[in-house]
Amino acid sequence: MGLTQALRDVQDWHGLISPEAESTLAEIFGVTPTEVREVHTFYPYFSRTQKGRYRIDVCRNLSCHLAGAQAVCEKLRAAIGEPGRASDDGLFSWEEVECLGACEMAPALSVNDELQGAATPEGALRLLESLRRGEGVPRPLDSAEQGGFDRRRPGPKEPRILTEHFGDARLRSLEGYRAKGGYAALWKARGMEPAALIEEVKRSNLRGLGGAGFPSGMKWSTVPPKKDKPHYLVCNADESEPGCFKDRSLLERNPHNLIEGMLIACRAIQADAAFVFIRGEYSRQLRILEAALEEARAEGLLQPEIRVVRGVNAYISGLDTALLETMEGKKAWPRQPPPFPTVSGLLGCPTVVNNVETLMMLPAIIGKGAEWFASVGAARSGGTAVYSISGHVNRPGIYEFPMGTPLQDILGAAGGVREGHSLKAVIPGGTSTPVLTAAEAMTAKMDFDSLRAVGSFLGAGGIIVLDETADMVEVLYIIERFLWQESCGQCTPCREGSGWVSRILKRILDGEGTPADIDNILRIGENITGTVICALGDTIGPVARAMIQKFRADFDRRVRHG
Amino acid sequence: MVEGPTVSFTLDGRSLAAPEGSLVIDAAKKAGIEIPHYCYHPALGNPGVCRLCLVEVEGAPKPMVSCRLPVKAGMVVRSNSPRARKAQSSSLELHLANHPLDCPVCDQAGECWLQDYYMRYGLYPSALREDKLHKDKRVQVGPRIMLDEERCILCTRCTRFLNNVTKTYELGIFNRGDRDILQAYPGRSVDNPYAGNVVDLCPVGALTDKDFRFKVRVWYLDQTPSVCTSCARGCSIDIHSNTRRPWHTPGQRVARFKPRHNPEVNDWWMCDEGRYSYKQIDSPLRLKYASTLSGGSPVRVDPAFAAGEIAARLRQLCEEKGPQGLAVVLSGTLSNEDLFAARALFVDTLNAGHILTRPGPDQLGSEDALLRRKEKVPNHRGAEAMELGRESSWESILSAIEAKTVWGLYVVDRDPAAIWGLADARELSGLALTVYQGSHSNRFAHEAHWVLPSCSFAEEEASFINFEGQLQRVSAALPPLGESRPDWEIWRDMLHSLGRRAAWDGPQAVFKEMTRVIPAFAGLDWDGLGAWGKRLELERSPA
């Protein structure tokens, strides 16, 4: 463990990873320079060429693209030069990146991993000027200041578990969290046997909210009885699915809720240590979490200790086994279970990896009881889910609703489709989930099983709304390009197929497509599905198929008329 | 996965028995069913990254990689069903999507797993309209190893070999996704003593051997199982010889050595020292004809005539001056059959006073923990087992020569002039008889009264015992060069001319007699040695 963290420090300090740094790190970590290079060249965050003192990242993914990210990029290109290298004065470098986890601020832009809110071409130029004047990186935006969350009062039928007190900035402190009843559930949990805790969570119908929807209690119960090896809990805060940003807000507004949830989970699985693996771009959330942990530590709450590990801006690291590889200082090449992480995870020890939101549900489950939690949700999905809503919608942000809430209600809470436009499609759970037509969206219910029944997934609840202006060929290209860029390259079908599909789509966008190309995309996608190691590769085909089948006219128009 | 008791399961409609938990791909191979694969290698593990060995498992929703699929009792697996074939051919199509398909100029053609599998499992029409990704096509990653980055399918076999077997880490897979690239770490070169194995491991034309490439197409080569004679490990090898297109490798009948899997000796590997020792077989130093000194210059003579003359001279001198004055230098370069014949001639018949068999400084080199042994001869254990008796040393023979108690020196394969540091082999010309017998010439051969050419191990059938006591056979890959003959045959003829009966019509006959006479060989059977040989119970080799 630690190589990726050390590489981060070197990159941030020197602006590149030099061969000398490779040798030094190799010596420190007892590996070879070849291995160090294999690791750091895997993560585009690390660079072998000098980056500027201010590293500007512009998100080019779907929501940001729809909101005009390209115009921002063009301005930066004119002002700084080609992406990926330092300007002549060494001050700036800029890059187009895949999703910064700030879709509600689209187009999102960050400077040295500090999120700057919605960017405009002119705003980007003003930013460069202020940096040039030496005014430093502007204070990152608070999601509350962006109006980034639901301010409705919940009705009796729609309790909010995690976002109830989001309007209150004091919630961030231990004192403020306690004032809302925080940490009471932890004391209750500590009076319970681990097996009883697991039973309670099983009965609550809590399912993994990172995207897979696996029953959490069931996952915990696969941890073997404690023997000679330590047990670990890892909180997956590597939220990277385009369209999802709820974990960012949850970490930022309600960090103690996560800490309490983690401590409860630690008791249930008898963990000896716990980690939060937080995505690299969430630097503000990292600081807030560290501060909250410090408060909890000072009060002696951290039993066991919770440490924060910073990710390296790679989507694949969000997959549990790839995350463990990154934590161990390696390339994020997913492992192939069995054994599952609960049996052999971090450093070969039993490890439970749970998403931020999943863990945050635990205090409510223990505090109010499994039955109450289960009653809030749908049949086999207990409690609520926190949705990230972005795209062509009036009030993008995060919204918490009980499992099973109609998608239409959620869209209504976010103010509906932007003025003067009509709904064309909805991506319900992040760009990895197959698209729904407007008609499907009007009847869809948001929970794991309901969406599965209509051929899509709840994913991590990243709802992207598309109105009639969206060109589905372009939308699919952006989604497939993301999977291509983030494909880890370990297994052949995904490595080769993701690029192939993307390049065909690009050719269609460039007016060089034929009807046979559309069928070929479907065929390649189908061939990849089910033959790959992890879920990333298994996404390539289904998202293309849904998009092409449901919006064939957009594709036919492109190949006929260029 | 721990392997359990033998259970039965069904593969392609056949009921197979295999240990529970063993891999389906292995069980299939044992049953003669090849499931296509690239990344899996029995000695390098099953990363499951190429996704080619996909099979259909009854009850499983998706095809599974058979290299990571443990055998379970009663499971039903299909490797040739339409679904399995579809999965394999899809995976193959994606392997080839960015492959340059430059087979006409690729040296791997003919032994390329992409080609072979395409013909067997692919045969789909190309649907690719995009430009292929371009990478560097000519990178020298080691003194003898060339890398074509475009052809690489990123199966990680080479890096796993360099990381886990040699632990030298010269190559890495850098970057991510389809930007992945196999490269040497800057300043590093794949020059470890086992580097050549990465070429054998590469299933495609990404890593090729500079020494071999562009010389002869592999389909012109013949393969003969043999044993490397470069050191006492005796790695199992295949000799790849080119006799069908000799003009492609002028003067070199052997195109290359390849390691042959033998879990008792070398596993899957061989060292570069051994690998490139094939050049010795047709080296310009090879002796092709028998000769004798006449007026100070060598004159070509018929080898049978020479053998007869030498035998007569040996008997005459032994009778006149006593056999204790004959010094014979033999060694582990000789096969068991040769050494047995030497024993019959020099010990049983002539009773020579000095016999040397141990490896001397000229036959010792460096060794390591993987394969390479310090004794650079294949059969020093055979020489021990043959119990030739009276072990001399180079020093004692030299002092005997200086004391003029030795009148004759009969040397096989070695150069006493070099070992004794003589400025000139002529310093030995005072002896009544000097004979050099060997496959290659040396300084001593230039001045010896008689020179007899013997054939190389690639030109005869014979057996060797490696340092651990593994008895292995070699087969003749080539006819003997010139008028060279197996050593045992030369000595058999000498025995005949001395009136001794030695009814050996071939090496098997010599071997058969050994099994009666030499205790270590008791009960052995030439044909029963098999491809991997047999382990003999020998006494510990003296250090």
Pick out its properties.
A: 562 residues; alpha/beta; four-stranded mixed sheet; 13% strand; globular; B: 543 residues; alpha+beta; five-stranded mixed sheet
Instruction: Using the CA coordinates, give the radius of gyration of chain B.
Output: 28 Å
Strand order of the largest sheet of chain B: 15-14-20-19-18-16-17
Rough outline of chain A: globular
Class from helix and strand fractions of chain B: alpha+beta
Major pleated sheet of chain B: 7 strands, mixed
Oligomer: heterodimer
What characterizes the major β-sheet of chain A? 5 strands, mixed
Total strands of chain B: the figure is: 23
Mean pLDDT of chain B: 95
| Average of pLDDT of chain A | 95
Main interface by residue count: A-B, 43 and 40 residues
Straight-line distance between termini of chain B: 40 Å
The percent range for strand residues of chain A is 5-15%
* Shape annotation of chain B: elongated
Gyration radius of chain A, to the nearest Å? 23 Å
Spatial gap, N to C terminus of chain A:
51 Å
Count of DSSP helices of chain A? 24
What is the share of helical residues of chain B? 10-25%
Per DSSP, what share of the residues of chain B sits in E-state strands of 2 or more residues? 15-25%
Q: Extract low-pLDDT stretches of chain B.
A: none
- Provide the low-confidence segments of chain A as ranges: none
Write the layout of secondary structure elements.
The complex is a heterodimer of chains A (562) and B (543).
Chain A: H1 3-14, H2 19-29, H3 33-42, E1 54-59, H4 62-66, H5 69-80, E2 92-97, E3 108-111, E4 114-118, H6 121-132, H7 174-179, H8 184-190, H9 194-203, H10 216-221, E5 232-237, H11 246-253, H12 255-269, E6 273-278, H13 283-298, E7 306-310, H14 320-327, E8 351-355, H15 356-368, H16 370-376, E9 384-391, E10 397-402, E11 405-406, H17 407-413, E12 423-427, E13 436-437, H18 438-443, E14 445-446, H19 448-453, E15 462-467, H20 472-486, H21 492-509, H22 515-528, H23 537-550, H24 552-561
Parallel strand pairs in A: 1-2, 5-6, 5-8, 6-7, 9-15
Antiparallel strand pairs in A: 1-3, 3-4, 9-10, 11-14, 12-13, 12-15
Helix pairs in contact in A: 2-3, 5-6, 8-12, 8-15, 9-12, 11-13, 12-15, 15-16, 20-21, 20-23, 21-22, 22-23, 23-24
Chain B: E1 6-11, E2 14-19, H1 24-30, E3 54-57, E4 64-65, E5 76-78, H2 82-97, H3 113-122, E6 139-140, E7 145-147, H4 157-165, E8 171-174, E9 181-184, H5 197-201, E10 207-209, E11 222-227, E12 236-241, E13 254-259, H6 272-275, E14 290-294, E15 297-301, H7 303-321, E16 326-329, H8 336-349, E17 354-356, H9 380-385, H10 394-402, E18 408-412, H11 416-419, E19 433-438, H12 443-447, E20 450-453, E21 462-465, E22 470-474, H13 487-497, H14 507-517, E23 534-535
Parallel strand pairs in B: 1-5, 16-17, 16-18, 18-19, 19-20
Antiparallel strand pairs in B: 1-2, 3-4, 3-5, 6-7, 7-10, 8-9, 11-12, 12-13, 14-15, 14-20, 21-22, 22-23
Helix pairs in contact in B: 2-3, 7-13, 8-13, 8-14
